[in-house]
């Protein structure tokens, strides 16, 4: 099968390379296999979750230039499910004529939180106030200007809140800076938000942009715990979020699906928090609840296939299965039978060999009608448990 044409050949399937074999890589590979696409994964762990689905796993670091070039030799196009992919190596491949989506230049912007926010501000897209900082004196001055609390963020290699520290008083500045010693950091004005919302939005190589519904996210300790689809917001706020997402996609380069996280502040203004150039945890509900999943939409985008607007077939609640705070190593998941008694509920277990505190081990999606989504969430959380084994 030749890329981007309308012919199908069993003897020549498309070969897709995915950098990252975690749960996102696994679910993307599952969708690719349904479409008879061959999948080669690059991941540091040979038994990564995606290994149960992929045709081949290359063992190696996401940042290993030579491993990425080795992957490129075996596939027709490359995508990634993690921001720590080596954007320089991917850019070199793209410059040599290889197909890489989303654009490595977009990845380079998003990999650094300061560059990401600066890019958005330059494109007149609403973001919280922010400043790059180098020492405690700068932090102190900017904190006084922003007002406490203020969020200190490591600019790179941070996710799920692991690179964030909320500075509540001047006395915490020294301790906060010591947490990220030797790393580039930025300060961001704290947004006293009403809700955290997000939207999955995709663009193909022909320029077609298509978005999923706006959803509501509930975090615990900076980790996404629950997604409610659609978000419990009014039409005006929904349209603001969609407009912001579309303008963001028009500013960025490359094809693929993007997860755009936003704040709804006390003045009913919508601001972008962060962008993920890949499928996103808050889009998992789409597997059961939408006419097309975020994973199929990503494949459609990078293959330049048609992308009709996704239809929400049912309201839904997605709950993450997270590793307990004080548990590392082998684990088991209990309560599966009880969880399956909840109507219209599906369990996704990622197959990670070990748990860590707050590690995403799976998720549960329940389709709902007029039931309070928080009641559904509570029932799911009470039924499913992770324990050591």
Compact summary:
This protein has helices spanning 23-34, 65-73, 87-95, 104-111, 113-122, 136-146, 173-179, 235-251, 286-289, 294-302, 336-340, 373-383; strands at residues 15-19, 38-43, 56-59, 77-80, 99-100, 130-133, 150-154, 164-167, 185-189, 193-203, 209-211, 215-220, 223-229, 256-265, 270-276, 315-322, 331-334, 345-349, 360-368, 385-388. It is of the alpha+beta class and 389 residues long.
What's the shape? globular
Q: Predict the CATH topology of the largest domain.
A: D-amino Acid Aminotransferase, Chain A, domain 1
Judged by helices, strands and strand pairing, the structural class is alpha+beta
What is the tally of beta strands?
A: 20
- Taking Cα atoms only, what radius of gyration do you get, to the nearest Å? 21 Å
Oligomer: single chain
Round the mean pLDDT to the nearest integer and report it. Answer: 94
Write the layout of secondary structure elements.
Layout: E1 15-19, H1 23-34, E2 38-43, E3 56-59, H2 65-73, E4 77-80, H3 87-95, E5 99-100, H4 104-111, H5 113-122, E6 130-133, H6 136-146, E7 150-154, E8 164-167, H7 173-179, E9 185-189, E10 193-203, E11 209-211, E12 215-220, E13 223-229, H8 235-251, E14 256-265, E15 270-276, H9 286-289, H10 294-302, E16 315-322, E17 331-334, H11 336-340, E18 345-349, E19 360-368, H12 373-383, E20 385-388
Parallel strand pairs: 1-2, 1-4, 2-3, 4-5
Antiparallel strand pairs: 6-9, 7-8, 7-9, 10-11, 10-12, 10-14, 12-13, 13-16, 14-15, 16-19, 17-20, 18-19
Helix pairs in contact: 1-10, 2-3, 3-4
């Amino acid at each position: 099968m030749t890329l981007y044409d309308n012919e199908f050949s069993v003897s020549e399937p498309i070969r897709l390379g995915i950098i990252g074999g975690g749960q996102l890589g696994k679910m993307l590979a599952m969708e690719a296999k349904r479409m008879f696409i061959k999948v080669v994964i690059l991941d540091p762990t040979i038994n990564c979750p995606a290994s149960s689905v992929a045709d081949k796993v290359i063992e190696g670091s996401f940042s290993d230039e030579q491993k990425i070039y080795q992957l490129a030799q075996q596939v027709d196009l490359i995508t990634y499910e993690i921001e720590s992919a080596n954007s320089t190596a991917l850019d070199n491949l793209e410059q040599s004529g290889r197909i890489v989506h989303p654009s490595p230049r977009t990845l380079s912007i998003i990999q650094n939180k300061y560059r990401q926010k600066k890019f958005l501000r330059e494109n007149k897209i609403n973001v919280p106030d922010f400043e790059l900082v180098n020492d405690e004196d700068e932090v102190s001055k900017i904190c006084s200007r922003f007002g406490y609390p203020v969020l200190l963020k490591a600019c790179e290699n941070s996710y799920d809140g692991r690179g964030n520290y909320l500075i509540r008083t001047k006395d915490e500045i020294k301790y906060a800076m010591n947490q990220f010693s030797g790393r580039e950091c930025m300060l961001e004005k704290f947004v006293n938000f009403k809700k955290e919302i997000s939207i999955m939005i995709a663009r193909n190589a022909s320029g077609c942009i298509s978005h999923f519904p706006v959803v509501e996210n509930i975090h615990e300790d900076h980790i996404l715990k629950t997604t409610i689809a659609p978000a419990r917001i009014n039409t005006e706020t929904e349209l603001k979020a969609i407009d912001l997402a579309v303008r963001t996609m028009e500013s960025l380069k490359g094809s693929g699906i993007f997860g755009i996280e936003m704040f709804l502040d006390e003045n009913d203004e919508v601001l972008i928090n962060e962008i993920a150039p890949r499928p996103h945890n808050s889009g998992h509900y789409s597997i059961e609840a939408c006419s097309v999943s975020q994973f199929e939409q990503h494949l459609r985008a990078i293959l330049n296939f048609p992308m009709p607007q996704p239809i929400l077939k049912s309201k839904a609640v997605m709950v993450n299965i997270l590793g307990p705070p004080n548990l590392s190593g082998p684990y088991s998941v209990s309560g599966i039978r009880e969880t399956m008694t909840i109507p219209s509920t599906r369990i996704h277990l990622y197959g990670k060999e070990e748990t860590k505190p707050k590690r995403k081990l799976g998720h549960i999606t329940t389709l709902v009608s007029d039931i309070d989504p928080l009641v559904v969430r509570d029932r799911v959380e009470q039924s499913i448990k992770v324990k050591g084994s």
